[in-house]
Amino acid sequence: MLSGGGAAIERVPDFEMADQQTQSRARFPGQPAMWFFVIGDLWIFTCYFACYAFDRGQHSAGFLQGQLTLSQGIGVFNTILLLTSSLLVAFCVQAAREGATALARRLLLLGGGCGIVFLLVKASEWYLKISTGLPEGSDSFFVYYFMLTGLHFLHVCLGLVILALVFRELKKAGPPHVAFVESGAIYWHLVDLLWIIIFALLYLLR
Amino acid sequence: MTGATLASIAGGESRKGRLLSNPKLDQWICFWSIPVFYILFGVIFVLLGRIMPPPTPTMSTENIIAFMTSPNLSLAVVLLALSLGMYALNSGLMLTQMKRMVGVSPVLRYAYIAVLGVGGLPGCLFPGYMFALGAFRPEYDPEILAMLYDLGFLCFVGSLGCFIIQYVVFTIAVFLDKRGIFPKWLGYFSIWTLVTELVATPVFITQTGPYAWDGLLSFYQGTLIWVAWQTSVTICLYQAIKNQPLEELGLPLKENEL
Amino acid sequence: MALFRNSLTYVWLFLVGTTLVSWWLGATTAVADIDASALSLNFTVTVGIILIAVVKTRFVIWHFMEVRHGPSWLRWTCDSWLAFLAVMVIALYRYSM
Question: Nearest CB to A1: which of B187, B189, B209?
Fold first, then answer.
């Protein structure tokens, strides 16, 4: 992730390559180490989703009852928040490629801001859930609810740290290390896509 | 001894017979203690103790008594008490290599060592001692044995949280390190290990299903990822020792390294 | 600004639209008002919601993560993971019903 050492050498050719290869189609997005992480993380979450899908059918009454107490509106709001955040970060990558680092920094701040709002909404949702008490017989649903949203929460926190490092990169003088900016953005989109699935499974499924 | 002969010995050209003069001998001894430790670990927890994979939390009282009073289990506990300290060699070696990192605060490696010292107690020794009680006094009330059984496994699987800071500091150190002592993907790998260990926290409130102490998520997934992580770290550690330049050890450089 | 008149904006509009559609599909509020126990497993709705989520995920991977420009192994890895996820979740849900 933080291959700062290689950055100085790679910077110039990398930046030129980004321009040349957008037309020629086969351009590797980000750094390979980030994809190693993304693909592994997707498989780990796949295990959770599999267990959830199975347990849900086994204890359907408790799951549906637990699900009823969730506010779907908050879930939709959070989904749109993360989608918007992803869009802003994707724009940020485009701006960084064009060398417009000031604009890229502003877009990144807005994207990260959406992430912080997401965390606040999530935390208040947890607070309300715990303070109002959980309905009888829905324990197994809420184990999954807190587990999946909690792990996702951690991913968002880590994502904010990564976005901060990208911000630092964009603040340096000279053209930014585009592959590094892309890697940070790829992580942020991973957070978004995991939430899309978690939202469908926890809030919407019937 | 002149610089030239020392360098040729260190380079490995005249490996036979001069093993003792190898300047990395201390590190290699510690390194080869790692596989020995994990083989013992397997013998203790899998073959003798039958602690891994764990039996179910809903086991009948007769089976719990059979498990707790098994003579193999007490043998496993004795072996565990004797050999757990070997882990310190591994930790010392990690500290030696983490010390070579550039741009990483020393706080991280001290935290790494400290947390390993804490985590091994609830994770290995406490459950061992609880299980040992069954063989020590088989006439204990079955209810007491059942409680020790629960307590032992909750310590064993539920202690995973003690290692979380280990993965956090290791990840940060790997990412911040400008020298690339360990590859960056190992940092990402540590994040998975961290995530899968966090998932073991509901063992304290569940008896069946994937979150119980014998569950797919609490035990199997976490253990699988941990074994893969431990293997990767060991391989990377091997590379790190191998690539460590001799000048760092206060020895003259080989000609091809100049 | 030229940046915002860009294909990613349409991708975002599509993602928000499908989010709202899946909300409409899986809405529990109307049912809950009448009787909580009237809510039961519904395979058709579930398949619809999972497929919408998978399509949304594909759009994020393809356009935001820029895998569509990536090498073919990466495209295949992402697509086969997504196909596996959809089939597995639907199959496990159906099997355990």
Answer: B187
Is A40's CB within 8 Å of B198's CB? no
CA distance A32 to chain C (A): 11
Give how far the C-alpha of residue A83 lies from the chain's centroid of Cα atoms, to the nearest Å: 9
A168 contacts chain C (CB < 8 A): no
Cβ of A130 under 8 Å from any chain C Cβ?
Answer: no
Predicted structure pTM score: 0.84
Alpha-carbon gap, residue C82 to C85, rounded angstroms = 5
Q: How many domains does chain C have?
A: 1
Are residues B177 and B156 in contact, defined by beta-carbon separation less than 8 angstroms? no
Task: Provide the shortest C-alpha distance from residue A8 to chain C (in Å).
Answer: 24
CA torsion angle B231 B236 B240 B242 (round to 10): 70
Please give the residue range of the domain that contains residue C74. Answer: 2-96
Q: What gap in Å lies between CA A77 and CA B35, rounded to an integer?
A: 51
The DSSP code sequence of chain B is --HHHHHHHHHTTT-TT-GGG-TTHHHHHHHHHHHHHHHHHHIIIIIIS--SSPPPTT--HHHHHHHHT-HHHHHHHHHHHHHGGGHHHHHHHHHHHHTT-SS--HHHHHHHHHHHHHHHIIIIIHHHHHHHHHHH-TTS-HHHHHHHHHHHHHHHHHGGGGGHHHHHHHHHHHHH-SS-SS-HHHHHHHHHHHHHHHTTGGGGT-SSSTTSTTSIIIIIIHHHHHHHHHHHHHHHHHHHHHHS-GGGGT-PPPGGG-
Express each pLDDT in A53-79 by its tens digit: 988 888 888 888 888 888 889 999 999
Nearest chain A residue (CA) to C87: A50
Look up the ipTM and state it: 0.91
Identify which of A33, A41, A51 has the shortest CB distance to residue B184.
A33
Question: For B63-90, what is each residue's pLDDT tens digit?
Answer: 998 888 888 888 999 999 899 888 889 9
